[in-house]
Write a structure and sequence with these properties.
The chain contains five helices and three strands, in the order αβββαααα. It is of the alpha+beta class. The protein has a single domain (6-122), classed as Sufe protein. Chain: A (Alpha-Beta Complex). The protein has a three-stranded antiparallel sheet. A hairpin with a 2-residue loop joins strand 2 (38-46) and strand 3. Helix 4 packs across helix 5. The protein is globular. The relative contact order is 0.22. Bound molecules: FE2/S2 (inorganic) cluster (FES). FE2/S2 (inorganic) cluster (FES) is lined by residues 32, 35, 37, 59-60, 62-63, 101, 103-104, 107.
């Protein structure tokens, strides 16, 4: 059996939503000090819905696949759902990641949360869902 699922390989080879949103409403960048990988997420938000999302990931294949899957999971969804997205859900949607690669999916969860925090910091009239 190969180490990586077909879905991981697919999202690594054909990552969805790669790029930058110049006029993003929220941006989140996180890194993992151990491996040195960096992930940046850009969000467009309208009426509490994620209308667009893009990512730039300087990292391993699992980090790229995780960013790609995570952006697919939150695109078009309410902010509250994006806020609740866990790294476990990202890994499950990819049909699993090897145990020592789980931290790559954590970057996706953290980058999305950070981008949402940035959005709420810039929009004090809006309130973060519980
Ligand atoms: Fe660090 Fe994958 S090895 S994010």
């Amino acid at each position: 059996m190969s180490l990586y699922s077909e879905k991981v390989m697919d999202h690594f080879r054909n990552p969805r939503n790669v790029g930058v949103i110049e006029d993003a409403d929220g941006v989140g960048e996180v890194g993992n000090a151990k491996c040195g990988d960096i992930m940046k997420i850009y969000l467009k938000i309208e009426d509490d819905v994620i209308t667009d999302v893009k990512f730039e990931t300087f990292g391993c294949g699992s980090a790229i696949a995780s960013s790609s899957m995570a952006t697919e999971l939150i695109k078009g969804k309410p902010v509250a759902e994006a806020m609740a997205l866990t790294n476990k859900a990202v890994a499950e949607a990819l049909d699993g990641l090897p145990a020592y690669k789980m931290h790559c999916s954590v970057l996706a969860e953290e980058a999305i949360k950070k981008a949402l925090e940035d959005y709420y910091a810039k929009h004090p009239d809006k309130h973060m869902p519980e």
